[in-house]
Amino acid sequence: MAVAHARVSRNDAGIALAVPLLKQRFGERCDTGQAMREQHGHTTTWLTTEAPDAVVFVESADEVKAIVDICREHLVPIVGFGVGTSLEGHVNAPAGGISVDFSRMNRVLEVYEEDLACKVEPGVTRKMLNEYLRDRGLFFPIDPGADATLGGMAATRASGTNAVRYGTMRDNVISLEAVLANGEIIRTASRARKSSAGYDITRLLVGSEGTLGLITSVTLKLSGIPEAISAAVCPFPTVEAACNATILTIQSGIPVARIELLDEMQIRAVNAYSKLELPERPTLFLEFHGSEAGVHEQSEAVAAIAEELGGGPFAFSTRPEDRSRLWQARHDAYWAALALRPGCAGISTDVCVPISRLAECVEETRADLAELGILAPIVGHVGDGNFHTLVLLDNDDAGEREKAATFIARLSERAVRMEGTCTGEHGIGQGKMKYLRAELGGTVDVMKAIKTALDPDGIMNPGKIFY
Amino acid sequence: MAVAHARVSRNDAGIALAVPLLKQRFGERCDTGQAMREQHGHTTTWLTTEAPDAVVFVESADEVKAIVDICREHLVPIVGFGVGTSLEGHVNAPAGGISVDFSRMNRVLEVYEEDLACKVEPGVTRKMLNEYLRDRGLFFPIDPGADATLGGMAATRASGTNAVRYGTMRDNVISLEAVLANGEIIRTASRARKSSAGYDITRLLVGSEGTLGLITSVTLKLSGIPEAISAAVCPFPTVEAACNATILTIQSGIPVARIELLDEMQIRAVNAYSKLELPERPTLFLEFHGSEAGVHEQSEAVAAIAEELGGGPFAFSTRPEDRSRLWQARHDAYWAALALRPGCAGISTDVCVPISRLAECVEETRADLAELGILAPIVGHVGDGNFHTLVLLDNDDAGEREKAATFIARLSERAVRMEGTCTGEHGIGQGKMKYLRAELGGTVDVMKAIKTALDPDGIMNPGKIFY
């Protein structure tokens, strides 16, 4: 499939000057080996790998600043790298340049227990953080499935299965430290829970995909581990019925922690991959957080809604092992789906629509898949109106690639027509640049004006978000 | 008190050209009468009134665009006006220019019941909206006390008593339509509940105080009216005990809808003004939202915490009339406080600190008030770490003005030292410009770069936020 690259061109002369300077400054922590470079331009998706010219393993904000200063002087691109779980080519280096690897900046700097907050270096992953926090009765709720770094999650405005209750990275970042293109190290906000002190630069950097600055610390909201957690599974006769049950649940104000749709094809994949025996029907996976009484009240309310819509049986469990098995299966949905067609490639789509349009959007999308003859199971964070299809294709078959491109373009157009977005949580990166203007029109020019103001030389992750 | 104005200068020649053009375009809806102009440059605070040269009553985004186009051509300032409840001089026109009055843009454009959302014109006030929504079982939770317009609340990132549970305007605006300085009308986001589609321009405009654009419609999240609402009042032996009870409540994850502190002086004022008979001690006013069982569970949990900290008696009520009386008294706290010293002026401060520092910050502030001999009752949205002192002063007494200025500067410095902010919800406006850099350092330069990029001629509300 043709990759929608921004028109960025390579500055060979600058790169030839900058790399030796970085070698001198960072020694073995500046790696120009081919395997390392390719791994840092590799994405778990259909986009072509575009390797940087060097990978630098940083250990502090001052080191990041040193790289930025060298790269600015020689007009060399800088691409941030967490663990590389991006699906939209965020870590690619279309014009070459330096990949800044944050894996050594992996310390939890502070836990502010009384404030339900913490400050971490950007290379801390969400699982590392939750492991660190467990004994204190606190957790960080955002869960995109992959064990992504918190810097990367902030940079791409990640969310995932818990967002319906706990929000996205937008809602859970209190403050950031970042190195800007001009080499300044800024702190975007105080630690106060709310503030009206000028423009919201925190929210501007969250989701900016490394194009405005490199995040060097993240101050996050935490939540108390709930007194009780329970899980439930409920099959439905149709995808529409499952979507409608979701809509009613949200409208009723039931504070579900997770409400995930898997269509019948995805259930078949999960059964095979995770050794489950779920009925092969569209199914909701749910999780409830609260007091013992609260989780029972919530699950009874959802069970009643499900029954009203022809769903059931509603299987409820408070046993941690049942819950872990269920959510592990949900997290493995991507791998389970790939196993439906051995050797295939997978392209994950990511539209999000107002929940009132969800059933309609999913149904139209399924009809389109059937018409095009594409194999693509569906999973969705349906409480937010967000769902993914995983298009399974033979990437060497031009006809299949063409069909997939047609499908994805139609899906984006459909989401925008239904007042939604082409990306609920994966970001624009390289993969969705061509859909952004259809969605937001002149707002894209505002973004570009800000980009030009803060990074006039275009050194921060060029070729991402907009042309 | 000296007013910390930005260095903005008046363009008499441009104003002399623009006003007749606006008169021609808008007829009687362009008002240059002195009373109307002064009312539009009037703030309910200590700042000097600075009237615009004309007030235009707009009826559509296209009309706003027409004003912006004329003002840009003649380099004339444009100041948005909702109902004028700002406390920090946001509606002042230090370099003259045009006040754009949104009171005629007061239609609820859409209610998306299934999506728990609505779209309104900027001149709709929160009470108008809630009146409109009541029969549908929905409400808009943000409540800053004053019946402000939703455009103004978005522009200043307002919050208030419900923010501890429902968030601030930052969290409750889904999308905005706005007219930029270049005359473009943009829509900042889709209606999807979450999105990773590029920079968060919605959040950039929320809190930008009219300095980047004029908001012409607001798409908002709504909430279902809770099944049960109850209120409670609980006195404490000390302010510290009340703060500590608040901290424990938040840490325990109890989803209180409101938790407000009134110190003993404020209780005395409220008793006199609202004819209540509360014990004259530091007191928490609380509200609980949820199911019948849920609100009882919540209030019992808070009552237990209060008792542990020496508070009580904990008076709980589910009667709507008790609740209304209590919250009306809370909302009238400003007027009640002013009545403590007839004829005085009032300056409301607005710091917000991490909740772990709240008791310490309030105590140091009270000691400072005592040392300076300033009369200033305290009310606070303590669940967020946000509190206000209302400095009661004779504005004609230079010594009192001087003392008040000393107090406010020390308070801002104290909040910043405790990792908090000089403004939790009132905004920077004119009044707090001098404190912003101490709080955010080089982040202010990022704001200025964005301002210059989007409003190169500086016509959008000049003299606000930064110098």
Automatic annotation (TrEMBL), chains A, B:
Protein name: D-lactate dehydrogenase (cytochrome)
EC number annotated for this UniProt entry: 1.1.2.4
PROSITE patterns for the chain: FAD_PCMH (PS51387)
Keyword Flavoprotein: yes
Cofactors that this protein relies on: FAD
Residue intervals of the FAD-binding PCMH-type domain: 48-225
Entry's Gene Ontology BP terms: lactate catabolic process
Family: Belongs to the FAD-binding oxidoreductase/transferase type 4 family.
Broad EC category: oxidoreductase
UniProtKB keywords: FAD, Flavoprotein, Oxidoreductase, Transit peptide
Molecular function in Gene Ontology: D-lactate dehydrogenase (cytochrome) activity; D-lactate dehydrogenase (NAD+) activity; FAD binding
Upper taxonomic lineage: Bacteria, Pseudomonadati, Pseudomonadota, Alphaproteobacteria, Hyphomicrobiales
Entries under Pfam families matching the protein: FAD-oxidase_C (PF02913), FAD_binding_4 (PF01565)
InterPro entries from the UniProt entry: FAD-bd_oxidored_4_C (IPR004113), FAD-bd_PCMH (IPR016166), FAD-bd_PCMH-like_sf (IPR036318), FAD-bd_PCMH_sub2 (IPR016169), FAD-linked_Oxase-like_C (IPR016164), Oxid_FAD_bind_N (IPR006094), Vanillyl_alc_oxidase_C-sub2 (IPR016171)
